[in-house]
Amino acid sequence: MSETTSTNEENKLPLNGRRAIPPNYSNDEENEVPEMEAFGLIPRGFNPRDYLRVVDIYMFKEPQEINKQEHHTDKYYNPKLIVRRGQAFQIQIDFNRPYQPQSDQFWLEFLMGRYPQQNKGTYIPISVGGALKPGQWGAKIIHRENNSIRLSIMSSATCIIGKFRLYVAVLTPYGILRTRRNSATDTYILFNPWCQLDAVYLDDEKEREEYVLNDVGIVFHGNAEDVKSRSWSYGQFEENVLDACLFLMDKAELELSGRGNPIKICRVASAVINSRDDDGVIAGSWNNSYDYGVAPSAWTGSVDILLEYYSSKQPVRYGQCWVFAGVFNTFLRCLGIPARLITNYSSAHDNNANLRMDFFLDDEGKVDTRLTKDSVWNYHCWNEAWMTRPDLPVGFGGWQVVDGTPQETSDGMYRCGPASVQAIKHGHVCFQFDAPFVYAEVNSDIFYTRMEKNGTQVVENIDTTRIGQLIVTKEVGGDGMMDITEEYKFREGSDEERLALETAVMYGVKKQSIQDTTYQPQTDVDMDFQAQKAVLGNDFKVTITFRNKSRNSYTATTYFSGNIVFYTGVPKSEFKKHSFSAKLEPSSSSSFDVVIKSSEYMRDLLEQASFHFFVTARINETGKILAVQKAVMLEIPALQIKTKGELVAGKEASVIVEFTNPLKQTLENVTLRLEGPGMLRTIKKQFGRIPMNSTLTWEVKFTPMRAGLRKLIASLNSDALRHVYGELNVQIQKP
């Protein structure tokens, strides 16, 4: 007796005084669906075989068949049916006898999760009727032959996305007969940028091909004067990636009923992409030591990261901004939300969102690292996702900023967005979510402030143009760079820019006016700074140029400081100090060179070979201070990739990766990674060491499965040298 009660208790739902059923946020869990749902007592002579019975369901789910072709889902490496919402798809049902519309009655049922409910969109009964209405659930018979019928099924343009279970139910006088649970008929429904009624509708076919269907992208890094690029494999169609992306929404505990809304999905995803406060996908590390994990620069794409997380359920180590953005882009494109990866050069990480980055100078005009808390990132990557914003006034739909890199908390969690790009441009930062933070990232000013002995702050210099000076993304249909700075801000100094700033201040962005501080700039002398293109391991020179526009002679005491920095602008060490006195003749320019030797920087170099130079000069006659700062990136040698022989689908081919060590030292603990989306899953190989000037060669054999233009991407990682990449476009012929 006791045994039966305990099993009954287990089957009961847990009691909860607030809700009738537990929260429903697992796409994977299922409920039991009865095959025979009786209306009462069943007479003894009843035989279900006497009634219309489903023998087989055919889903047209092969990549070359009508559904995946028309729904642009033929690239997904997934055997099940994948369709996009708001667009008709076809299935065929084989019965045990011809279907008779006058007497037979059947309907379809799509179910999701453990507690399907019709009002939550997780239980969807569809009766077979006449004409289909656009963007609403419905089904109609388009062909009848012998015992088979073919149905055209329309899904709602607002339905939740994820994996549905399909049942066919037949009405008999004594109860409902259902098909058995069959996972082969499971149907994934995704967002549909091709459907005008969908919140993510995008009207340009070339843009849809880029922002939804392209599985390779470009990450722009370096700095604004020296833009560098590398390829990233999004791999949204690779095996198990779709299931991994759906699992992220389960992990974020997003109710199934909220999964038709791209705004909600982006917001929870921006939190679950990073591991802070929810054990999300990637653990960030910015300290140059990556024990027990992979260095951020070694990843070549998102697939390995997502699949490792999907199987281990533990954060994957390690990522930095472009890794978070790369994985986020995969997630969005995989679910059908148009998305692109953005790089903002000279990105302000403003700790108190007051549009003011403070760099404090000491008495001599040198930067005081103790007091300076704000940092300017050489670049920062985030994402834009395309959607309507019915929660905002008209005009703020379109591209929305979402950022998975953990920087600041938003509503108590590390997440950011979606914030309307249009709202940021016009200063309407009152509109959710996190617009003031993004506005500060692209619009802050740099204040060089000197602390007097009595504690007063004297502003010596203000740089209004450096932050957010260049914002870029990959061009549509090519590997080039598209400048989108004007989507985020009006031209510097224009009336519109001033108005946008006033609007942002009105809506609560803190901006200290210059009147609060004493500020008289030195206007008749300009100082500029140029660095020679430099290759890692070589000496290079930098040039400081003064332009004296006045009729006076001046002398300038100049301090030059070279720092090795993380790409986030945070200094690791000062490797070069140099001061000199410059004589400035009236109405003329004078230049001064400083040589940087490789022996000075190689020992402390960080992985992105990034320097930050500060030059401050005090004009002795007036006491005024000039200040300029600049990031310089060294050229890092590339990996060479080549293929041997002809590349034909289905035939074994080989690819060769080569690298020559350019440094005056041996490289230790060398790891190579190689991948080709849709062609070659990531392979890794460890090499012990590469002596100076020697060349490493690695040959990999693989069999490409599909014809077409693909890309091979490789990375090299070692203790002394990281951020080494190579790529090659390859054309795979039809057999």
From TrEMBL:
Its main location: cytoplasm. GO terms for cellular component: cytoplasm; extracellular region. Keywords: Acetylation, Acyltransferase, Blood coagulation, Calcium, Cytoplasm, Hemostasis, Metal-binding, Secreted, Transferase, Zymogen. It is found in: Cytoplasm; Secreted. Its EC number is 2.3.2.13. Binds 1 Ca(2+) ion per subunit. InterPro entries: Ig-like_fold, Ig_E-set, Papain-like_cys_pep_sf, Transglutaminase, Transglutaminase-like, Transglutaminase-like_sf, Transglutaminase_animal, Transglutaminase_AS. It catalyses: L-glutaminyl-[protein] + L-lysyl-[protein] = [protein]-L-lysyl-N(6)-5-L-glutamyl-[protein] + NH4(+). It comes from the Eukaryota. Ca(2+) binds at N443, D445, E492, E497. Residues 313-406 form the Transglutaminase-like domain. GO terms for biological process: blood coagulation, fibrin clot formation. The active site is at C321, H380, D403. PANTHER family: COAGULATION FACTOR XIII A CHAIN, PROTEIN-GLUTAMINE GAMMA-GLUTAMYLTRANSFERASE. Belongs to the transglutaminase superfamily. Transglutaminase family. This is Coagulation factor XIII A chain. It comes from Cardinalis cardinalis. The gene is F13a1.
